[in-house]
Batch of 2 targets.
Target 1
Amino acid sequence: MSIHHLPASRAIAAYPDSAELTIKIVENEDERLKAMLVRAIVYMHEQQCPFSEEFDLNDHTSTQIIGLDQDGEPVLTARIRYFNKLAKIERLAIRSEYRGRGYAHRLLQFMLDLCRQKGFSCFYLHAQARLQFFYEGYGFRPVGGDFAFSDHDYVEMVLEEDEKLPQPTQQIGHWPMFLNRPENNLDQAGPLEFGISREHLHGLTEGVRA
């Protein structure tokens, strides 16, 4: 199982305790359950959001993120949905007892980096109005008008980066195994590529025997 640690950043330097946190993509049902429980604690219990508004079919088509402490206790979660030319960041949640440690910075940086690996340079989210300043610190800007749902005020925000990122589609016709790589590991050889290596090695060995 791959563990996807967020690289060291200024957030870790400012909040040493955050180094104990592992942020990763959900890879099994146990991690998925932990992610859903964090959302239930934060949104349903703390913010009084109805179940029917918090959980939806998009949970089955999103990239789910989980943050775990050194004991495997679920700390935070979020999810990402992908659209043509933009990635939508959703459902960021941190349990109250873990706030104030810089975890929100690490979570957002992790998600942005993950989306950049996929070639995205446009990021979109609905920020609670009280958190607008936080997202502005990362370059997000308000667009459109304010709106509300689940009894909370929200601001529509977007981050558009100028840097041209490598597009996965550039590998089509050149490296067919590239898009078979596991989620968040596009820069590392996947298990099927190791299979190619074994077949190649076997062929070389047979040649020597002959």
Note: Strands lie at 22-25, 63-68, 74-83, 86-94, 122-128, 141-142, 147-149, 152-160.
Target 2
Amino acid sequence: MPTTRPHGVKWLTWLGLLLAACWLAGCTTAPPRNPDDLCSIFDEKPAWHTAALKVQREWGAPVHVPMAIMYQESSFRADAKPPKRYILGLIPWGRVSSAYGYSQALDETWAQYKQETGKSFVSRDSFADSLDFIGWYMAKSRQINGVSLWDGYGQYLNYHEGWTGYQRRSYTAKNWLPPVAQKVQARSQRYASQYEGCSQRLTRRRWLW
């Protein structure tokens, strides 16, 4: 007598195949449609606002600064990677650094973050984890180099050059870097102005949920 598979089992099989295909294809959360407007970002992705407020509570980093740093580092792309390195301009030979994910955190710095915070099960392609990493890094920059958490310029120079590099003023040898840090500062200020006009509305919506 022939047997038939229950519809529920068939549905679960298809769901499993779909999830597996998504994983193999590297499915990630799409960047926000309007990355130049912080209110629009949080309207589109409410969980990002929740994560940003959590970072503010834990590390003291105002919402707009880590978001501006993340934009500069990855344009809010979960799978962002640095460019490849080539030998003789033709042969691919790895990437210029181990930076990866929303925060473009290096392997060794990410490992330090995990060790110091005890947050073992974190991922660089998680928005919340990456933003928390940036908040942690900013707090360390304030502790080590006395840079205000509201100073997008100084915080980005620390983030890019490292705490020791900032102390040695290594950025002065890179003519292109201070203007980039100025862009981060300008974006953080623009984000701050935008957020001032929508923060109460976004917070009320969180409580309504």
Note: The mean pLDDT is 86.
